[in-house]
Amino acid sequence: MSEPRTSYREPTVAIIGAGFGGLGMAMTLKRAGFDNFTVFERAADLGGVWRENTYPGAACDVPSPLYSYSFAPNRAWPRRYSQQPDILAYLRRVATEHGILDRVRFGTEVTGAEFDEDTRRWRVETAQGDTFEVDVLIPAVGQLSRPAMPDIPGAASFEGAAFHSATWNHDVDLAGKRIAVIGTGASAIQFVPQIQPTAGHLTVFQRSAPYVIPKADRAYTRWHHRLYRALPLTQLAGRLGTWTIGEFLTMALTSVQPLGKLVEGLFRLQLRRQVPDKRLRAKLVPDYPIGCKRLLFSNEWFPALAQSNVDVVTDRITEITPRGVRTAQGEHEVDVIIYGTGFKATEFLAPMRIRGLDGHELSKDWAEGAHAYLGISVPNYPNMFLIYGPNTNLGGNSIIYMMEHQARYILQVLRAGMSCVDVKPEVAATFDDEVQRRLASSVWSGCSSWYREANGRVSTNWPGLVWEYHKRTAKPDLSAYQEVV
Among candidates 366, 398, 399, which has minimal Cα distance to 381? Predict the structure, then answer.
């Protein structure tokens, strides 16, 4: 690698996205004395998924002491597992306290970015027709930002109200209505128990049953809040305990899969206790190894499905008609269709068009699956660093922890004094080979899920413990990079 340049100037930085990742990166830069950055946000407010997902019961499945920035603990969380309004309020408060809001260009959607080899700068293009030139590009758009709609024949013909859970239509009165819910993922298990009591009838169309285990939730009392303020170490201890349990879950999914039997035991015990009907219980038993798809947490899902105004349909949907949903067994007439069908998690950075060195285009380089060194750097895209990039998602811990380490890593690379760096292709290839080899023996390779590409490649998840990622990103190996001159 060439020697760092002696004349160093602070780089200009464009951060794309004002969710947990983008705001965390912005705060990391500002706390370190970097001031020349802009956050581009397509919406009129910050928050990412916690702004968009306003469906009834929307909440986090990671306890709040861990699902928050380590440098900005919240002593006043109302619950152990906080709900969407409280998480969004936390983000707004922290961003305000750190002086980030005036650095966000709201209502500015980035449509693409191109690296200029002559100036060695990125040209960022927006939907509004504006162009910005910066030294460093940091996409932080996440993996769960674009709702996935199933390709079902006749969907456009439905005459009633229809919407995705991530774009909930609060103008639709669901009381007394016949409602079809398509999908049984993380969102559905939260909103179904909320709408079931007032629905006239609820038909849940299940393609595959999820593993759902108890959620150890509780409301925090004034005693908790006083204790956390008086003795902050008590909240830190709770954060550490949750982190440790998350590492245990990760081992159960990757390196010590027999541990998964203990988690499966919790699922079976809860299912038997909460669903007395044997026929319904049989429908709710997954046909794949635990953890292969996302493990879910709820105390209300099974009781809601056991109610008299709920049917669970496992027949394959053949089409949607003007009046309802048709399966091979017949038509189910409904007034409302709610899609709980998740997100386009493997379509990283889409629909933005990113162009790098020598005509490289990211969508083409990632045609067989996204990949990045440490989930952060992609060869031939100098001075582009990803937050929540490929193979950094988790099956059993807090993604905020991962994002913080990515932000600190990027900060250290920027501080290294090189004006324009590109990860070496052979370094990135060796890293990707290791990750894919390890993932091939993980539980995630055993079934079809949003963790995997159509070709079977697992492009979302990290193959090891969070602690390992912490160690590998604690100090950048600058020999992995080359300076673009």
Answer: 366
CA distance 59 to 206: 22
Q: Is the pLDDT confidence value at 29 over 50?
A: yes
Determine if residue 385 is left, alpha or beta; phi over 0 gives left, psi from -120 to 50 gives alpha, anything else beta.
Answer: beta
Own/partner pairs for 431-436, CB < 8 Å, 24+ apart? 431/373, 431/374, 432/371, 432/373, 435/371, 435/391, 435/462, 435/463
Give the tokens for residue 452: 């995997």
Decide the pairing of beta strands 13-16 and 121-126.
Answer: unpaired
What separation in angstroms does the CA of 253 have from each of 99, 291, 292, 443, 460? 40, 6, 8, 6, 14
Which has the closest alpha carbon to 212: 306, 87, 85?
A: 306
For residue 9, CA distances in Å to 22, 36, 133 come to 23, 11, 16
Question: What is the DSSP code (8-state) at residue 285?
Answer: S
Q: In the block, which residue shows the tokens 């170490």?
A: 233
Q: Which residues, in sequence order, are CB contacts of 245 under 8 Å at separation 6+?
A: none
DSSP 3-state assignment of 122? Answer: strand
Instruction: Measure the CA–CA gap between 281 and 438, rounded to whole angstroms.
Output: 34
Tokens at 120, concatenated: 């060695």
Angle between helices 399-415 and 20-31 (to 10 degrees): 40
Q: Is 21 left (phi over 0), alpha (psi -120 to 50) or beta?
A: alpha
The residue written with tokens 């292969």 in the block is: 292
Is 55 in contact with 121 (CB distance < 8 Å)? no
419-432 pLDDT per residue, tens: 899 999 999 999 99
Q: State pTM to two decimals.
A: 0.94
Say whether the peptide bond before residue 351 is cis (omega within 30 degrees of 0).
yes
Element (H, E) at 253: helix 232-253
Residue that the structure tokens 């590998």 belong to: 472
The residue-averaged pLDDT of 81-95 equals 97
DSSP reduced 3-state for 39 = strand
The distance in angstroms from the start CA to the end CA of the chain is: 11
* DSSP3 helix / strand / coil % (the chain, rounded to 5): 35, 20, 45
Q: How far is 129 from 397, CA to CA, in rounded Å?
A: 40
Torsion over CA of 143, 149, 151 and 155, rounded to 10 degrees? -170
